[in-house]
Every structure is written in C-alpha cells, then in structure tokens.
Design goal:
This protein is of the alpha+beta class. It has 2 domains: 16-171 and 230-319, BirA Bifunctional Protein, domain 2 (2-Layer Sandwich), CATH 3.30.930.10; 331-419, 3-Layer(aba) Sandwich (Rossmann fold). Helices cover 39% and strands 20% of the residues. 36% of the residues are buried. The structure holds adenosine-5'-triphosphate and magnesium ion. Magnesium ion binds next to loops.
C-alpha cells in the first residue's frame, strides 16, 4: 500500500476487535458522570488558532510545537485542530453566557490532536474525557474532582494501578514572586541550562521545572520552591484539599515539582500516574484555572477541571487483564434458496420488532458453511430456513450455546423461544 493511502502516522484506527473495551469504558464513564450531576457538551474539533494561544499560553510545548495549525484557504483564517478540550469548553461557556444562573458541571469526550513523536501511549490523534466545573471557587470542588476520579478507578478496576500526586501553584502574587526568584537562580547557572530552558528563562521559567532532560534534574531539584512563596489563602485552600482527601481515605503525595504543561493553572494541580505504562505514565491530569474565563472574555469566574487520556487508561485496563466480551447477536439466520432468503429477511425483521439482535446471513452458500458462520458469530441461536420452511411460514430454531433441541415454529413462536432467558 502506498504511504499516502495509509492512515496518518500517530493516528489510529479503532477496529471491531478493540471496540468492546472502548464501549465498556465509555458506558462506565457516562454512568459515573451522571452520578455526579455532570452534563455533556460537544464543541467543534476546529477552533481559531488564537483561542489556544491565548488559553494554553504561547510558551508551552503544545502551542510552540504540537498544534496542527493551517490556513483555511477559502477565507485566510488560521485554524487549529483542538489539542485539548478546556479552551474550547470555556470558549463555549463564555460565548453562550452559560454561567448567568450559577455554576456548571460539564464534561466532554473526543479526539484531540498533537504533533508529537508517536510512541506507546503517545499519539497524534488521541482521546480525552474532560471534566470542567465552572463558577466554583472553594476547595470543595477540588475535592469532588479527586474523589470522583478515585471512584472511577475503582469502577474500572484500576484502583491498584494508579497513585495521586498533588501540588499547589498558588495565586498570581506568589507566582510572580517565585518567578522572580527562579529567574535569578537560573541566571546565575545559565551554563547548565539546555536550549529549551535558555529560551524559557525569561518567558516562562516555571516550565523549566517541568523539564524531562536528565542532565538538568539536579539543577531543578535545588531550585527555589513555589511552596515557600505561598500566601495564607493559597495554603488554606491546599490544606482543605489535603484534609478532604484524608477524610475520604485517598492516599496522595505532594510533588512540589508538579507544575503542569499549560499556563492556565493556579492553586491545586494534580496527576494520577501509573508505573505500568513506561514513560507515558500520566493517565489523568488537571487542576484549578481561576483566571481563564476572564482571560477568554467572560465575566471573571473561578473554575477547575481535568482530562483523562483514554488510550492510556485502556492500555492499563488491558494490562490488568480486562477483556470484556464484544456484543453478540441473539440469532443468526441461515437461509438456503430464493424463497428462503426472502422469508429470512422477514423473520429477521420480526425478531428485531421483538427487541432481539438478529444477523441475517447474506451471500448464499450451503447449509453447512452457513452453520459454521452461525457458530463463529457467537449468536445464541441459529434460525434455519429452507424453501420448505419458507413455504409454511415457519423456521427451525437451534440453540448454539448449551443444551436444547431443534424446534420448528412460526414467527411468533420463534421470537418467544429466543426471547427466553
Ligand atoms: P504528557 O506529559 O504525557 O505529554 P500532558 O501534560 O501534555 O501529558 P495533558 O495536556 O495534561 O497532557 O492531557 C491530559 C492527559 O491526556 C494526559 O495525562 C495523557 O493521559 C493524555 N495525553 C496527552 N497527550 C497525549 C498523547 N499525545 N497521546 C495520548 N495521550 C495523551
Ligand atoms: Mg504533552
């Protein structure tokens, strides 16, 4: 197959063999979110490029090098495939004035796009489930988010595989003080900075702490800590979050180096991480972003949220031995002969009228070869129709799983037999 007829590198097909796990995950997530009163919203996959620059920050990995940005040749607009969901969600909330009557609990899911180096757990099209609570200032909402994630891990059978790291980034003033100290610290050690860090020194020194360069670990380890700059309000908020976790019995570690890769965060930030997926170990991440609504033109409103990486969670579920069965039909309709084939179509529709799942054999073939297909389909029953049966308006029904005799019945009898159990 020539290269340009293949899928784009880093963008995956999700095939029928994998879909049972996706659907199990999605159904669990939907029910879980309903249990907390979150409402789904859907936004376009394309947005104006300026939205992401403004929301995520110019000096971030995503905006600097990961966005799929192109000019719409029909009108000259610069557009970007969404790299994450928060910017779009907040844009929609502001655009539709959704906070006019109070706070909102929202969620969304779908593909996100980042031009990264593809590897296990890191793709160019990947999927997130995102949760956002807008209009809530207090630590009670931070705690709700942490509690609900812990519940989801239990429901997905992942509780033993993930652990929680939290940190606080404080408010604007403490961040400004910390920023100044960081610049002074790194300026004095400029020769030890790699190229990325040199570039970020004045534009976004906090992000230097987020470096993955092993050669710089010692340097960032010893850098001035934000926690030493925090004011009382920030400390009290963080303390309340920690108490909420303790009260709910959720274990966590405070990681002072957790700063997150997006500019919009303040106060609480967190990540759920696993050791089972190699370097791509963060399966869920988020925190508070009180400034973003105003930054995108809305009336100031506090907010917090988080996003899960669906592929990484599914990989973890597979790793933990989960292999949910795919959906199978109640009946597979075998038919040989022209009249039989016409009648089988009617019989299949009658089964569906009765709320059953029926697969009609198409494309002919002998009874024997069709029976093999019926068996392989996993269906509970084979419904066998020859021209004889068709002429009598009847069908033979044979259980494919477990005990039971083949019986010949009319259509009402057929639905009744298959509906049992
Ligand atoms: P990382 O440090 O792994 O690059 P990130 O901080 O860029 O993650 P976020 O923007 O916080 O990631 O996105 C939330 C979650 O989405 C991540 O924790 C991860 O599970 C998932 N995710 C992010 N980028 C990718 C990707 N390229 N492929 C698959 N999943 C991803
Ligand atoms: Mg990233």
């Amino acid at each position: 197959m020539s290269d340009n007829l293949r899928a784009v590198r880093g963008m995956n097909d999700i095939l029928p063999g994998e879909i049972a796990l996706w659907q199990h995950f999605e159904a669990t997530v939907r029910a879980w979110l309903a249990g907390y009163g979150y409402q789904e919203m859907r936004t376009p996959i394309l947005e104006h490029t300026g939205l992401f620059k403004r929301a995520i920050g110019e000096v971030t990995d995503i905006v600097e090098k990961e966005m799929y940005t192109f000019v719409d040749e029909l009108n000259g607009e610069s557009l970007t495939l969404r790299p994450e969901g928060t910017a779009s969600a907040v844009r929609a909330v502001v655009e539709h004035n959704m906070l006019f009557d109070g706070g909102k609990r929202l969620w969304y899911q779908g593909p996100m796009f980042r031009h990264e180096r593809p590897q296990k757990g890191r793709y160019r099209q990947f999927h997130q489930v995102g949760i956002e609570a807008l209009g809530f200032a207090g630590p009670d909402m931070d705690i709700e988010h942490l509690l609900m994630t812990a519940r989801l891990w239990r429901q997905l059978g992942l509780a033993g595989f993930v652990r929680l790291e939290i940190n606080t980034l404080g408010g604007a003033e403490s961040r400004a003080r910390h920023r100044q100290k960081l610049i002074e610290y790194f300026e004095a050690r400029k020769d030890q900075l790699d190229e990325d860090a040199q570039r970020r020194l004045y534009s976004n020194p906090l992000r230097i702490l987020d470096t993955k360069n092993p050669a710089m670990q010692g340097l960032v380890e010893a850098a001035p800590k934000l926690i030493d700059e925090l004011d009382e309000v920030a400390l009290a908020h963080f303390e309340a979050v920690k108490q909420g976790l303790a009260a709910a019995g959720i274990a966590y570690t405070v990681n002072p180096r957790l700063v997150r890769g997006l500019d919009y965060y303040n106060y609480t930030v967190f990540e759920w991480v696993t050791d089972k997926l190699g370097a791509q170990g963060t399966v869920c991440a988020g925190g508070r972003y009180d400034g973003l609504v105003a930054q995108l033109g809305g009336k100031p409103a506090p907010a917090c949220g988080y996003a899960m990486g669906v592929e990484r969670l599914l990989a973890l579920m597979a790793e933990s031995g989960q292999n949910p069965p795919g959906a199978v039909a109640d009946a597979y309709l075998v038919n040989v002969g022209e009249a039989a084939s016409r009648f089988a179509m009617t019989a299949a529709e009658a089964l569906r009228d009765a709320g059953l799942k029926a697969v009609l054999h198409c494309g002919g073939g002998s009874f024997k070869s069709q029976m093999k297909k019926a068996d392989a389909s996993g269906a509970r029953y084979a419904v066998i129709i020859g021209d004889d049966e068709a002429a009598a308006g009847e069908a033979s029904v044979k259980p494919l799983r477990g005990e039971g005799q083949q019986q010949r019945v009319n259509l009402a009898g057929l639905a009744a037999i298959i509906s049992k159990e």
